[in-house]
C-alpha cells in the first residue's frame, strides 16, 4: 500500500511553490510622454490603470458569479492555480492531498490587491492549511516580482487565472513568469478568450453586453465594474496571438491549435494556455 | 520550427531505449545543447504534447514522419521501400503496440480505426513514387500507389514477425507486382489486337 502510494507520487505531477500573480501596473518612464493602455474599451494613461483595476476588484472582491468555478474544476487535474481569493490555491492543495496524499506541496499566492489577499487569507483560516508552510500570501506586482523574494529558476508551476487580461503589460508578466520558473517548469493561464463559432459568439456577445452589466447593477450596485469586465475580455488577444506572446517570452508550447498550445473551454469562452520553460 | 518539434526530434533516438512512451518525451530535454538536470515532469509533457496517450501518439507520428525523411535520399521505388523497412529495424518489437495505439479510436466507436494505418502506408507509397520521379497520370497514378500500398503493408507485416527475411520478401513482392503489371499490359494489348481484327472482319463482310 505504502509502496503503491510512493509509485503514484513518483509518476504523477508534483507541485511545489506555485506563485499566483494578479493585477499589474507599470510606471511610465519619467522622461517619456505618458503611455496609454486599454481599460476595457477605454484608453487611459498607464499610471491610472492600476487604480481603476483596483477599484474594480475592490468592488467584486467578495462576490463571484460562480460560473468560472466550473472551469476551475477542469484545472485540478492539471494542477493549475488561479489568483484572487485563493479559490484555486485551495483546490490545488486539496487535490494534492486527496489524490496524491501530498502534504509537501506549497502554494504562494501573489496579488497586487491587498483586499483580495485579505479575502484569501480569511478564507484559508477556515482550512487545515492555515498557519502551515503550504500556503503564504504576498503583495507584489506580477510585472515586476521582487527578485530578492522571487528568485530565478525557482518554481515548478506558475499559474494565473482570469487575471492576466487586467495587466498593463502582458509581455512583462510572461517574462517574469519565465524568469521565476525552473527549467522544465510549467506555465498555465486560464483566461476568457475568443469564441470562434459565429453563432455562439453572437449569443455570447448579447449575453455579455446586456445581462452581465445588468446583473452587476442588481447584485453589486456597480454597473461600470462589470462593464469593464466584459470589455476587457474583448480586448484580450485571441488564442493564437496569445500563444505567440507566450513563445516570445521564451516558453515552449504545443502546436498552434486547440488541444495544442491552448485548450478551449465552452467553445472558447474560456481558454487554458499551457507552456513549458525549456 | 516550434520548440516542441525540436524536443520531438530529440526524443526520436530515445525510442529504441524507452519505447513510444512519455518517458522518451520527458528525457528529450536531457539531450538539449544545454541539457536540463532532470527530465520534464509529467505535467510539462502533457502541456507540450498532450495528456495520456495523446503524447504517445504525437511521438509515434513524429517517428513516422522521420521514416519518410529516411526515404528521401533514395532514387528508386525499390530502394525507397527498402530504406523505409530498414528504418523500422531498431524498433520492430515496439511497432505492434505503436500501430495498435494509432488504430485505437479516442471515442471507442468504432472499436478499431483503420484510417491511421492506411494513411501511414499511403504516405510511404506516395513518397516512394515521388523520390523515383514517377510520372504516372490519371488512373495509373492511383493504381501505382494502390499497388505499392499493398506491397509495403504486406512487407511491413512480414517484418513484424520475421525481420530477417523482410527485405527478400519485399523484393519478391515487387518482382511479382512488376510481372503482373507487364502481363496485364500485354494481355490488354493482345486483346486490343483481337478486337480490331474482329472489327475489320465484320466490316469486310458488309454486315455494318
UniProtKB/TrEMBL annotation, chain A:
Pathway info: Cofactor biosynthesis; ubiquinone biosynthesis
Annotated GO CC locations: extrinsic component of mitochondrial inner membrane
GO biological process, one term: methylation
UniProt entry keywords in alphabetical sequence: Membrane, Methyltransferase, Mitochondrion, Mitochondrion inner membrane, S-adenosyl-L-methionine, Transferase, Ubiquinone biosynthesis
Predominant location category: mitochondrion
Compartment(s) of residence: Mitochondrion inner membrane
Record has Membrane as a keyword: yes
UniProt cross-references to Gene3D superfamilies, sorted A to Z: Vaccinia Virus protein VP39 (3.40.50.150)
SUPFAM superfamilies: S-adenosyl-L-methionine-dependent methyltransferases (SSF53335)
Enzyme Commission identifier(s): 2.1.1.201
Catalytic reaction(s) noted: a 2-methoxy-6-(all-trans-polyprenyl)benzene-1,4-diol + S-adenosyl-L-methionine = a 5-methoxy-2-methyl-3-(all-trans-polyprenyl)benzene-1,4-diol + S-adenosyl-L-homocysteine + H(+)
Enzyme class: transferase
One Gene Ontology term of the molecular function aspect: 2-methoxy-6-polyprenyl-1,4-benzoquinol methyltransferase activity
Family indicated by similarity: Belongs to the class I-like SAM-binding methyltransferase superfamily. MenG/UbiE family.
Role played: Methyltransferase required for the conversion of 2-polyprenyl-6-methoxy-1,4-benzoquinol (DDMQH2) to 2-polyprenyl-3-methyl-6-methoxy-1,4-benzoquinol (DMQH2).
HAMAP family: MenG_UbiE_methyltr
Stated name of the protein: 2-methoxy-6-polyprenyl-1,4-benzoquinol methylase, mitochondrial
Higher taxonomy: Eukaryota, Fungi, Dikarya, Basidiomycota, Agaricomycotina
Gene name tied to this protein: COQ5
From TrEMBL, chain B:
Pathway: Cofactor biosynthesis; ubiquinone biosynthesis
Annotated InterPro entries: COQ9_C, Ubiq_biosynth_COQ9
Superkingdom of the organism of origin: Eukaryota
Annotated keywords: Lipid-binding, Mitochondrion, Transit peptide, Ubiquinone biosynthesis
Protein localization: Mitochondrion
GO cellular component labels: mitochondrial inner membrane
Ranges where the COQ9 C-terminal domain occurs: 118-165
Molecular function per GO: lipid binding
Pfam families hit by this protein: COQ9
BP term (GO), one: ubiquinone biosynthetic process
Annotated PANTHER family: UBIQUINONE BIOSYNTHESIS PROTEIN COQ9, MITOCHONDRIAL
Similarity comment: Belongs to the COQ9 family.
Biological role: Membrane-associated protein that warps the membrane surface to access and bind aromatic isoprenes with high specificity, including ubiquinone (CoQ) isoprene intermediates and presents them directly to Coq7, therefore facilitating the Coq7-mediated hydroxylase step. Participates in the biosynthesis of coenzyme Q, also named ubiquinone, an essential lipid-soluble electron transporter for aerobic cellular respiration.
Protein name as it appears in the record: Ubiquinone biosynthesis protein
Organism: Roridomyces roridus
